[in-house]
Design a protein that fits this description.
The protein is α+β, with helices and mostly antiparallel strands. Helix 14 runs antiparallel to helix 15 and helix 14 crosses helix 16.
């Protein structure tokens, strides 16, 4: 059985031989262009992957992934990334292992017994921390990105240790380090057309949420009132955001960028709600933070948009200090008062002023 997919052979010459992926300062554009639309069986896919070629479940128009210019055409694989990683970080910001699934345990899962076409080690795997990818071929290609993502989540939900962040459309994957990273090849196993049709019926019957452009996270970041004499947003933000903007090293780039975006969205929500005028757009600050973390412009490969789109319910976010402080949102007003007391005095509600007054240390 052959499956729709795309491979990127040129990326192999740009990956670090030890890490198995492109490191900071590398040629990331090689990873986002040059995707060859292919129809391959599991054995053929494994051969490309073992040579460090990139793998994508989709055929892409013009073989590229680019912000606002990416057009997935059809998909013939579902690729599940098993990272065995906790969502939270350690005390020093390090990644934390949350071991949920080994490959031998994966083989015992009913879905893998029936449908697993290919499995291979992630480039970052180690004996102590196993990371791998499970590839399920699709007998019938999928052309609807919404259904594909829904169906992928259904498959993923029954697999412990899976990374739901790796289900965006289209997701690009690095190959494994060498041929020893190929864990399983099953040319006669795939998700049959009947199961795909059943899933589509269920998907079609589910009520769809109406898209709301006003709660798009990028719109939130771009919607604040601006003036050259406005409040300095960066001074309002958490120390972690300021550290990123000072070009300090980060342990996990995607996680850190997500934290930065949530903080900026939180402040954008709060400032818009209270008519606080800023001197810099939160969206501009977000673009700057992305460059500080990734060392390339946010427009290059669509990663900025994918991280932004992974943030759920952006309209409900608040600044970190509003959630951490005993005074709640009044703590935000205190930050405003330290920058511009007149803005604080004119705009802060009476309740916030009373909370801050009550929180002041009493004279002995």
């Amino acid at each position: 059985m052959k499956f729709i997919c795309s491979v990127n052979k040129s990326v192999a010459s740009h990956v670090d031989p030890k890490a198995g992926k492109i490191l900071d300062g590398g040629n990331f554009s090689a990873f986002n262009t040059g995707w060859e639309a292919s129809t391959l069986d599991a054995q053929e896919i494994s051969e490309f992957v073992s040579l460090k070629a990139g793998l994508c479940a989709w055929h892409l128009k013009d073989g590229k992934r680019e912000k606002n210019n990416t057009f997935p055409e059809q998909a013939g694989l579902i690729i599940i990334d098993i990272d065995n990683q906790a969502d939270a970080k350690g005390p020093n910001g390090e990644k934390v292992q949350q071991q949920e699934l080994t490959f031998s345990e994966a083989l015992d899962l009913d879905i893998c017994k029936k449908y697993l076409s290919l499995a291979y080690d992630s480039p970052s795997t180690s004996e102590e921390w196993p990371r791998f990818r499970l590839v399920f071929g699709l007998e019938k290609p999928i052309t609807d990105p919404g259904f594909y993502q829904w169906f992928s989540k259904k498959v993923c939900s029954g697999i412990p240790g899976a990374d739901f962040r790796a289900l965006t459309v289209p997701q690009l994957f690095y190959g494994t380090k060498d041929a020893t990273g190929i864990l399983a090849v099953n040319k006669d196993k795939f998700i049959p057309e009947s199961k795909i049709n059943e899933a589509f019926i269920a998907y079609a019957q589910e009520p769809k949420l109406k898209e709301k452009s006003d709660i798009d996270p990028e719109n939130i970041l771009a919607s604040c009132q601006l003036d050259t004499t406005g409040i300095d947003l960066v001074r309002l933000c958490s120390q972690q955001v300021r550290s990123v903007l000072n070009h300090e090293d980060v342990e996990d780039r995607s996680f850190t960028m997500t934290v930065v975006l949530k903080e900026l969205i939180g402040w954008a929500n709060w400032c818009s709600k209270h008519n606080v005028v800023l001197c810099d757009s939160p969206l501009t600050v977000a673009h700057t933070a992305f460059y500080c973390i990734y060392q390339y412009e946010h427009e290059l490969d669509g990663k900025f948009g994918r991280i932004l789109d992974s943030i759920h319910n952006p309209e409900d976010l608040l600044p970190a200090i509003a959630m951490a402080s005993d005074t709640g949102e009044a703590a935000c007003w205190k930050k405003i008062s330290l920058q511009n007391y007149k803005v604080y005095d004119d705009l802060a509600p009476k309740e916030a002023k009373e909370k801050l007054a009550a929180a002041k240390p009493k004279p002995r």
